[in-house]
Amino acid sequence: MISTLLPESRAIHPLARFVTKEAIALLLNLKPEEIYRIHCWRYVIHVVGKGVSRFVSYADLPPIVDVEPPHPRDFLLWHKRWQRHKFKAPTFWVQFYAQKFQTVPNLHEMYRWGKLVGAIKSALSAAGIQWLRMVYRREKYAMEHF
Fold it and tell me: Is the pTM value of this prediction over 0.85?
């Protein structure tokens, strides 16, 4: 799940643990196989892909389950970035988590993603949380009964 990162700086950003090829692909509207390189620099991520070379902020990427969970200092970094979104996560995060709920292989993994979303729900919009709950329930029901 975690992509091969090319650190270009000795100083590692605290949010670098959340950098994944899947999240960047969804953010940039690309397929994961269309991303050629991800360079993690001190303050930004440089993404090189098919027809694209973009800089992405670490604070644009949502937390994932396979690394250390978010800390209060992570929320401070996100809130600083989200001033233009009324201090809420971009809608891309809701899409990312809905996609994770729909593609998990088992209920245990779905529970882990649900627990993570529960930990960061203060960062998500009310409509986004409601939609994620609906997706979670639907996918959980499908896994339990089919």
Answer: yes
